[in-house]
Design brief:
Elements: H1 2-34, H2 38-41, E1 44-48, E2 52-61, H3 65-78, E3 82-87, E4 92-98, E5 106-115, E6 121-129, H4 137-148
Antiparallel strand pairs: 1-2, 2-6, 3-4, 4-5, 5-6
């Protein structure tokens, strides 16, 4: 009887996780169609609720690598990320943000900035959630685009 009850609980959780993942995939496709900004159009995610998810985006800018790096570091801080490491030469910025109701958990955000042949720069953002944490795809895209906005010189 105990084994049957345990099996039912595990099966129920697995089905809920699959349904949750399927719903997010449909939302992701819809959102990408409605937003043409590079930060949203280049947005990707992978992983699962239980195993953790990674979210990424990138954009090219007319700014030099050094100027883009400075702008991106300032944008990181103004969006509430604690910068844990940065290196202008390699173009790497690492930071984290506390998880609401996460009992001290933090989620990492990493950025890289590279020079491109046109004289501008290429910036990438990566955000990771550990298993059991969830976030709205709309909210993540909005955050990514907000962080990258200072690099968008038209």
């Amino acid at each position: 009887m105990k084994k049957t009850a345990l099996l039912l609980v595990v099966l129920t959780l697995a089905i809920q996780g699959c349904a949750h993942h399927q719903r997010e995939s449909k939302e992701e496709k819809t959102e990408t169609i409605n937003d043409n900004r590079p930060c949203a159009a280049n947005f990707t995610s992978d992983g699962s609720f239980w195993g953790g998810r990674s979210f990424r985006t990138y954009m090219d800018s007319k700014m030099s690598k050094n100027n883009a790096f400075s702008s991106l570091a300032a944008s990181f801080a103004s969006h509430g990320y604690a910068i844990t490491a940065s290196d202008r030469e390699s173009g790497l910025i690492s930071g984290n943000s506390a998880v609401m109701f996460g009992n001290g958990k933090v989620v990492p955000m990493n950025a890289t900035v590279k020079s491109i042949p046109s004289g501008g720069s290429h910036a990438e953002l990566t955000f990771q959630l550990s298993g059991g944490l969830s976030a709205s795809l709309d909210a993540i895209k909005k955050e990514f685009c907000g962080i990258l906005d200072p690099l968008d010189q038209k």
